[in-house]
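Illustration 12: GPI ethanolamine phosphate transferase 2.
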Amino acid sequence: MQGLFPFSSSTNHIANRSCFDSQESSQGHFIIVLIDALRADYVFNKNSSYYLKSIEKFEEEGQALSIKLRTHSPTVTLPRLKAILTGTIPSFWDVLFNYNSSQLQLDNLLFQYKRKYPEKKIIFYGDDTWVKLFPNSIFHRSYGLQSFFVTDFNEIDLNVTHGLYNELNQMNEWDFLIVHYLGLDHIGHAFGAFNSFIKDKLIEMDEVIEKIVSKMNKNDLLLITGDHGMIDQGGHGGSSDAEIYVPAIFISHKLKENISKKTKNNEEYFQIDLTPTLSALLEIAIPYNNLGILIENVLKHFYHSDKLNLFKCLIDDNRRQLFNLLSNTKLSTSLNDLHIIRNQAMLIANEQDLKMLLLSIILFWSSLIIFWFNIQKISLLSIILLSIVYLISNNLFLSLAIGAISFCIIVIGTGERKIGYNKINNEGKTFPSQLLMWYPLFHIISLFSSSFIEEEHQTWYYLLSTYLLIRTIEEKSLKYLFMLILSRLIRSWNQTGNKWLNIPDIGDFLNRSENVVYLFSIHFLSSIIFLYLLNKSKRSSITYLLPIIVLIYRWNLFNSLTSVIPLLYYGLLGYLIVRKEISIENLLFSLLYILCRPHNCLIIIIHMIFYQFLNINDSRFAFILSQSAFFHLGNSNSFVTIDISTGFVGIPIYLPIIHGILIYLSTYGLSIIWLLKLSKEERTDSLLQLTLINSSFVLCIFLQRYHLFVWTVFAPKVFYLCAQTAFNFLLFL
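Figure caption equivalent — predicted structure in token form:
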């Protein structure tokens, strides 16, 4: 992963030059209201009932200027905050750090503000990510709130608003105020982007905005923006238009002097362009690593025509600052096109570690050989050779590469292939067995296409349906025909992928408020079948309580006990484990049944039917079922479909490790169950197949490493492959 993900070449240098020499600011109070997951259409789509009406009102009065910003992937909070504050394009590594961020070391807006105005006070309320980024004395007062309680729609925002209103009543006590609201994002994760909760939250935000503007003086400035958007289903992390476009609204009473009527601005800008623009408005130096370009359309409304020299100085300063980031470039320093300079700086600022990338290719292919051949003791000579090369060269990369290559040569030259793996049984010449034998090759070839990665579920659905259809025809089996019908049903349950994600599916139909009767009926029927399948072996009568508890929890039948009901469920599962009255597979099915959304309960039931009635005698068929199960639940090769709300089912306090385990189980649980069904030999075969996919995928990325646009597709797939490989390897051990 270190080699695959582009690393940022940003330095810890601090910008010293600024067009503003005076230590006194001509601006009044500066307020940033950041609304998490604020989509652009919540401001610009006036034909919808889902938009901020207060913005339209202030635009008509000539007090507001709205622009549309384009963010970069990944569209999650931490990298987006870093982009706004530093003007850089954060790495995909920040997706991991999003759940446990650390101090921001790069030059940034708040550091430059305190550096120029040490006596001025910055106040913050909201997402505690900010407090983790600035743990020192940047904030005069701060109140950080845990951002991952996605089931909390109101309490966090009410606390933020309470602090905000207190500050508005004592505006002489501060100079710079930042508030970060989380409720809109949480509602999106739970119910999607269009529902009654969203309407209520937008009305609440309208009230907050109008309250702030009513307290502002002439020289005060309010900025309202979002860190990222969200898809219609409510998730984010990918690169669809609904996720990457956010609004930025500048509100000030002084705009009335420069905007005679409602100003329409149809141009789009990068989110990182906010950084130099805010630097100019705050009259501070542009952060050293900034890749943004001044938004002249905004600045011209705040700087009158008598300040043309200052305006020119700002643009020259932006050009000089971008040139500082360039090294080994043939661009002329007299070049005036800031966009050409910025594009070159972007390429330099985000590069891959080529040595680590090559080493990962070598190590992956070496691991393939380990699984494919019997290893002889003579292969240990490669370790001796590795050590000698390292002692001579003191180069870890070179020594590991030579050691791995020599190991491969020795093993291939002396070892024998493990004939137990990839074996074809006695009926191996049948068409279904031939399909199982050759499909990994076609899947690997498909990984060289970014579209096939985005729509990988189509590959696995096709393979599963084809195999079941052929078995049905060859064996004239009603059992396989029934399984084929079920597989066709659940592939239409959750629309996934990228190109057709917004097409309505069965899950969307069931989740509509007017179809709640259908949803309850399916959940109730699924619970009866779940009860039957779970108690088929009649090992414990306590299991009869499990589906009843899930129904009570999901349908909120005991309102006052809703939060603790899942704890009773976990307690019963713990009791069954201690008494050895439940198998590992049924334990995982039971966990998934309470973690999944109500409409997905039928997916769990159908896979339980597959598990109990399908004869799995080939690891490659189990691998097809394992991969298909991942997509059946609505997952995809994108961060956007990760349902983080599953990590908080029945957990009343913030426990990152527990939340992580529950999210992992809800995402990969069905895949894990199919791998558990394999024998020791078949597990090795499965790991061999996954290692082959990894090896080919790394090689594919290496060949396409200069095409940066594919990273929004490749990066999530790398995460998913690493997560799958880790579990497969633990299972193998």
